[in-house]
Amino acid sequence: MWVVLLAALSVSSACGDRTVPSPFSRGGEAGAGGEAGSADEPPPPPPSNLDGPCVDDAQCDDGIECTEEYCDLELGRCRRTPVHEVCRDESHCNGLEQCEPGVGCVAGVPLSCDDGDTCTIDTCVEETQSCTHRPRDADGDGDPVKNCGGTDCRDTDPKVHGGALEVCGNGIDDDCDGAIDEADCTAPAYDTCADPFVIDAAGTYELSLAAASEDTTLECASSGGTRRDVVVALVIPEEGFDVDLRLQAPGQLPALAVLEECDDPASSLACAAGVVMPSGTQGVARTLLRGVAPGTYPVFVSGVSERTVALSVEYVPASPAPENEACESAAELAPDTNEIAVVVDARHDLGSACGDDARELVYRFELEETSDVEIHALALDAFGEPVISLRGAECEPRDSELACRRGTPASLFERALPPGSYTVGVGSSGPSELDVRLTVSPPSEPEADEGCVAPPWLDPGETRTLSLERRPDVVDPGCLGGAADATYALELDEPSDVLLVGRLSDGDRAAISLTGPDCSEASREVCVRSGQSPLRAVVSGLAPGEYRAIAESQLGAPMTLSAFVRPATPETLVPFADLCGEAVDIPETGGRFLGNTENALADYDAGCDFASRVPGGAPDQILRLELTERRRVILDMSGSNYSTLLSVRRGPECPGTEIEGGCVPGYVEGHSYFDRVLDAGQYWIQIDGYDLDSGSWSLDVFISDPPGAELGFQSDNG
User: Fold this and answer.
1) Which domains does the chain have, with CATH numbers?
2) Of 441, 438, 406, nearest in space to 424 by CA
3) Element (H, E) at 519
4) How many angstroms separate the CA atoms of 87 and 99, rounded?
5) Which of 62, 260, 290, 362 is the most buried (most CB within 10 A)?
6) Do residues 374 and 411 lie in contact, with contact meaning Cβ atoms separated by under 8 Å?
7) pLDDT tens digits, one per residue of 28-56
């Protein structure tokens, strides 16, 4: 570790003041005997970044993008400095890419999440930039094998585990209690074509999948695993009825199939795969039988657990399938008129930037003059998320999409749309019915932050409150497709590190991006999208110049955008800092710090570590921050690979006293975030872990002037 630190210090000094005399200069006196220097002084660092002879900077260009080079005129030699930040991609789990002189960018070492426990499956999760440690469970039934603390006696069969029901008559110890077919075993009901559950009237019927087996392989559902099914005999009494079947299952993806012959899966009349409802708590499969002849039809109700599912049956007057399934048969969408789009049995035909999971119907409308256009789609049920795709007259090609919007409800706005013919795909991620409405109004003027050409400035430390209602999707940084956006200009006068922070409305999904002046994906420096607030995006080592900070909202809901800037700062390794006497200083200009608590001791408690089971909690490290005046301090642990916990303390003596609201657990997304205005004084930053967790951590520190009182800033613990 010391070798790494010395190398880092050598590079840092070489990158700094060029006027520092070279230790290898041939000018001046060397001194006689012992006059050259004390034996206690360390030798000068080797010239690791020196290269061939030169007389000007142009001769030192090595053609490698990630190195900075210049001619040291004092030595007549080229100096080369690797800039690792140029090589970094947006992936956390593949490790930190490095710049190797003479070679260029080389891949980093993938992040190891190994916790040393053979009974856990350790995975790096890119979205949360953290590690998960799942109990070893080979068959995926949720019960670890017995020798790893679970109760599963057959870890190759997902239907056998400690929480399973004992099935009568199968000769297997299903519940792993050491007994087979004991007296309290469960016999499956309606498990075969010979014993179906009969439905001949509308209503909702609860069906238990307990002890059932998988008797039929459905074409719309993956077979095997824990999937099981029961059989329903559906009676259609007379002609003139359609039958609407809706199968809902808690916490799983059900499937529903209607056959002509019970023992012939190839005789399928309809097969509906389950989708997750927007609530995320249930799955739903739905099919609409149109114009089926009277008779009794076998229906297979399939699920992936032993829980009870609900099958709703409704007999409705017969109706034809919608004719506007395709672009060539698009239906007229008249302004200020509500249309009901039934996409239960529609197909997915149109590609969209808002996702390719929506079954849709197609509409068309004409504009005789330039107009503002609004299209709203409201789901009349809870089965799916509406998706709107506004397209040109050609309709089918994916590049004909002009704009899209997804949400509950979905509301698409386009400003000053030119005269012409347009088509609209209206769909849903689930088997829904949608209320669709088109509104046309005179063209309006764009907002100041709408577009990329001359947006307003976003000053460092400033927070903008954005109202994104009735906003189009104007710029496309390739971060969140089909979202309302606002753009701001950010000017950097020197090489800088930048932190963007976005806060979003409840229930929204949003994104923040930093790009070049053209707002394009090609010039994008960073992109973060999530439904969790706050969003944080850090870019290190940006060159001076003009940039664009872009905020996007899927629902067009209000959000805020802030930017924090510090001079470009190299990463600081924190090898020890286990005790107060080893605390590493944080400059008042901020910085980025990397450490690892796995080999540290648990020295100090933290106020919000409620799950801690031992004194001192998890292993911790200490940093020190001294503020000479009242400042806004942001501490961001994004990029850490475990569930962090951050404790901010104050006092002249370490570890000080934890300030009110100064303890921030990171168990939600695996890392902590602290944003507060702090008075002048000495602070101790405790890097800790939630519930005894430990690992590699990253801490970004940005410090700025406090916001004015007119902004209504409140202390925020993340």
Assistant:
1) 197-317 (2.60.120.380), 327-441 (2.60.120.380), 463-566 (2.60.120.380), 572-711 (2.60.120.380)
2) 438
3) none
4) 6
5) 362
6) yes
7) 333 333 333 334 444 443 344 788 899 99
